[in-house]
C-alpha cells in the first residue's frame, strides 16, 4: 500500500475520532441526553470549557431542526468533573434560517445533589446554505510556519505536562507568545497557535467550539500565574472549516478589576475566518 | 439663580430620567415583572435592542442578589413592539462574587398568543467591589472633539429622522464614519460617536447596555442599506462609568455569508474602557 494511502487510513475522520467518541451524547428522552465527561480533556483536574461547549453543541444539534452552531453563549456556573453528566435542552424558537435553543449540563455533587455546571443559549442554522459572499477586512494572524512553532513534545514542556488534553490536541504555539514558558512573559496579551486534533480528525463546526478555548491563557503572557476561570464565553461560527490545520489567535486588551476578556479568532487552511469568540474570565493577580 | 445652578436642576439624574422611567419594571410576583415598552426608543417601528437589554438588566438587577450587570448574553427571537410586556426571570446560581440569572421578555401577538421576544443569560456582581488594578493595553478611540462631530440636529439628518430614539439620545457621530449619510460610504466597517442621554442623565451600568447598540449600523459604512437585525448580543460591563459623555466605537471586520459581527467598546470621560460588546447580525446585501 502506498505510504499516502496508509497515512490516510490511520487518520481519524469526522465521526470516528477521540473527539467524536468523547462528545457523544445518548438521548434518554426528547431533549435530554446522557454523557460521560471524559478525563481526556482536562487541564489539571478541570474539564476544558471548550470541550464542554462542544458537548452542549452536540446535544443541541440533535435537539434542534438545524445542526450547525452559529452563535453559542455559555455561562460557566461550577467546575465540571470527569464522569457522568446529563444535558437538558429546550427548543426556544424554530425558524426557517435559524433555530434557538437552550442547554444546561448537570452533574451530581458528593452529597448526591444535582448541580448545574454550565448553561448556554444558542442559535443554530445551516452553514452550507449561506451565500458565498465574503467582504471581510480581517487578515489571518501573523504566525510562523508550523515547523517553527512549538508543542509539548518540543523539549521543556511549554504546555503543562499535567494536562490530559495535551495528548488530544495538535497544538503548536508561536514562539513569540511563549515567553511565559521561559519565565519571560512578553507583557502582551497574545497567544497564537496552529491547532488540530491529535488523531488527525479534521475540523468541523463542533470542533471549532473546542478550538476557541484550548490555548494557554493570554494571562500567562501578561505575567500572571494561576487559574483564569471562564465566566462567560460566546462563539460565532462563521464558516464550515476546510480540511487541514487551523490557526488560532487570542488577544486580551483589557485586564482590569480582576477580570479580562479573551478574543479568539480561528482561521482555516483556506484563509477563511471560520470562528470568532470572546470570553470574560476572572484572574488572580500574581 | 446662577446659570450653572439652573442648568443643574434641568438635568435629569439617575433615577429621574426618560431612560429610568421607560425601563421601570413592576414586580408582579417573585421574579416576574410588567413593563410597558416605550415607543420612545424605536427605530422606525422596531424597539431598539439595547433598550430591551436594559429592561432585562433592570429586572435581573432586582431579582438577583447582585445589582450590576457584568456579562449579559441575549438572543433576539422576534421583533418587539411598543406596548405591554412581561419579563420572567430565573435565578440560576447565586455566589459571593457573581450571581447568574436568566430573563425572557414576552408580548402578545395579534392573535392573543404569548410570544417570546428575547432571552438572556447574565452574570451580575458588584462593580464597586472590584480592585482598582488596571493593566489595560486598550486605547480610547480616535474621535474628534464633540464640537466637530455631527448629530441629527446638524443639518441634513445623518440619523434617520423617522426614529423616535433620536430624540432620547445625545449622539454626535465622527464625520469620518458619516460617509454613508452623504452617499459616500467609506467601505470601512467603523462607526464612532459621542454618546449620552438627551435629558442629561449620566451613564450607569444599565445605560451602557443601551449604549452598545445605539449607533447606526457599521453596515451603512460598508455600503449596505436596509435592516441589520441582531441575532445575538453579549455585553461585558467592566467598570462603573464616570459622569460625562461616553465615546462609543464600533468595528466590523468580517462580513461574510450574510452575517457580520459588530464589536463595540465604550469609554468614559475618565478614559476607562467601561464596556465591551459583540453582536452577530444578519445583513441583506444591497
3D structure, described in words:
Chains A, B: Residues 38-125 form the Acyl-CoA thioesterase-like N-terminal HotDog domain. Chains A, B: This is TesB-like acyl-CoA thioesterase 3. Chains A, B: It holds the Pfam family 4HBT_3. Chains A, B: Residues 161-283 form the Acyl-CoA thioesterase-like C-terminal domain. The structure is a homodimer of 286-residue chains. By secondary structure, the first copy, chain A, is mainly beta. The first copy, chain A, folds into two domains: 3-126, Beta Barrel (Porin); 146-282, Acyl-CoA thioesterase, double hotdog domain (Porin). Chain A is 14% helix and 37% strand. Chain A has five helices and 15 strands. Chain A has helices at 3-10, 18-23, 49-63, 205-211, 218-221; strands at 26-29, 32-37, 42-43, 46-47, 68-76, 83-94, 99-108, 114-125, 169-173, 190-197, 230-237, 246-251, 255-256, 259-267, 273-282. In chain A, strands 1, 2, 5, 6, 7, 8, 9, 10, 11, 12, 13, 14 and 15 form a 13-stranded antiparallel β-sheet that branches. A two-stranded antiparallel ribbon of chain A has the order 3-4. In chain A, helix 3 runs antiparallel to helix 4. Chain A is globular, with a radius of gyration of 18 Å. At the A-B interface, strand 5, strand 8, strand 11, strand 13 and strand 15 of A face strand 5, strand 8, strand 11, strand 13 and strand 15 of B.
The CATH superfamily of the largest domain in chain A is known as Acyl-CoA thioesterase, double hotdog domain
SS elements, strand count of chain A: 15
**Radius of gyration of chain A from CA coordinates:** 18 Å
Strand residues, percent of chain A: 35-45%
Supply the CATH class of the largest domain in chain A. Mainly Beta
Residue-averaged pLDDT of chain A, rounded? 93
Distance between the termini of chain A: 55 Å
What number of domains of chain A? 2
Q: What is the element string of chain A, with H for helices and E for strands?
A: HHEEEEHEEEEEEHHEEEEE
Q: In terms of quaternary structure, what is this?
A: homodimer
Greatest contact between two chains: A-B, 52 and 52 residues
Q: Which percent range fits the helix content of chain A?
A: 10-25%
CATH architecture annotation name of the largest domain in chain A: Beta Barrel
Domain Acyl-CoA thioesterase-like N-terminal HotDog (chains A, B): 38-125
Organism (chains A, B): Streptomyces mutabilis
Protein name (chains A, B): TesB-like acyl-CoA thioesterase 3
Domain Acyl-CoA thioesterase-like C-terminal (chains A, B): 161-283
